[in-house]
Amino acid sequence: MHGPASPGWLLVALCAASGAYCLLRMRSGVEEQRRAAGSEALMGFAMAAMAVPAAVFTPPAWAWACYAAVFGVAALHSLRWARTSAHHLHHSVGSAAMVYMSVVMTLSPGSPGGHHHAHGGSGTPLLTGALLLYFAGYVLLTGARLVPAVAAPAGGGGAVTAPGGGGGGTGWGDRPELARACRLSMGMAMVAMLLTL
Fold this sequence. Notes:
Blueprint: H1 5-25, H2 31-50, H3 61-81, H4 86-107, H5 125-146, E1 149-151, E2 159-161, H6 176-195
Antiparallel strand pairs: 1-2
Helix pairs in contact: 1-2, 1-6, 2-4, 2-6, 3-4, 5-6
């Protein structure tokens, strides 16, 4: 990950903001929301840390092994809940992608600790391509779900309704459109990080 400074800082900001919002979502009264938000907060903050430009911080060699271990456990935990929700299956894929990127960073030639800047040809092209296709499709699907639905009344003149209804008494942690925007942001960040492999 650790590419040029400007895009790196943009990724850091995007992922950290997504992780922070997911922490807010953990206060939801719905258990499924809290469980998903916890996994997404972990992912957001870890992606933010991975995207810090190398000129600012180069992680030690053991850090990548720690990432791989943490996300290996997270992938297994999400798989446990995958039969109750397809979104947990997505969490498993995301965690597995983080394990993959961590292993690539550990094994890639370059500067100390597997840290590299050129990123050319470090990962397995077939696996990197499959993950890129998955996350690009996820971004497109999630983005399409954010587009407001248009309800055309019989009298003409379409009224635009926001996804998730009016949200009269809905708190910040339970807004489905904000959760989708957060997931969209992290999906785009994952595509950007996979492109650097």
